[in-house]
Amino acid sequence: MKINDVLHRCQYTIILSSNTPPLDLASLSNMGVWSNPKEKHYILTLTHNADSINDSSMFEKIFKERTGLQSKDFMYEAKHGPLTLQRAVDLTWF
C-alpha cells in the first residue's frame, strides 16, 4: 500500500438533529472507521478509496437505508484529501 492510499481517504462528518437518537456504531462498523468526538457528531473514515460510498450520493442512500433516518434527521459533509491534524482542527465543531 502506498502512503497516498493511506493519507488520501474520504471522510464524512455527520451531525444528527437534536431529536435524533444516537447512531448504533456497532451495526455501522462495516462502512468504515467511526469516531464520535461530541454528542450527535460523528466522523466516518473510509477504509478503502475504491469503496462505493466514496461517492456522496451513494453514501447518503446507504446511510439512510442502514440507519432508517431521513434527510431532515442529519447533515453530512464529505471531505476528500490528505488526513492531517490541521484539517481536523479546522472543523468548526471540534
Which structural traits does this protein have?
94 residues; alpha+beta; Alpha-Beta Plaits; 4-stranded antiparallel β-sheet; 24% helix
Q: Which secondary structure elements does this structure contain, and how are they paired or packed?
A:
Blueprint: H1 3-7, E1 11-16, E2 33-38, E3 41-45, H2 56-67, E4 74-79, H3 85-90
Antiparallel strand pairs: 1-3, 1-4, 2-3
Short summary:
With about 90 residues, this protein is an alpha+beta fold. It has helices at about 5, 55-65, 85-90, and strands at about 10-15, 35-40, 40-45, 75-80.
General description of the model:
It is a single chain. This protein is of the alpha+beta class and 94 residues long. The chain has a single domain (3-86), classed as 2-Layer Sandwich (Alpha-Beta Plaits). It is 24% helix and 24% strand. It has helices spanning 3-7, 56-67, 85-90, and strands at residues 11-16, 33-38, 41-45, 74-79. Strands 2-3-1-4 form a 4-stranded antiparallel β-sheet, with no helix packed on it. A hairpin with a 2-residue loop joins strand 2 (33-38) and strand 3 (41-45). The longest helix has 12 residues, at 56-67. It is globular and about 35 Å long. The mean pLDDT is 83.
Strand content: 15-25%
Text of the CATH class: Alpha Beta
Shape: globular
Mean pLDDT: 83
- Low-confidence stretches at least 5 residues in length (pLDDT < 50)? none
Oligomer: single chain
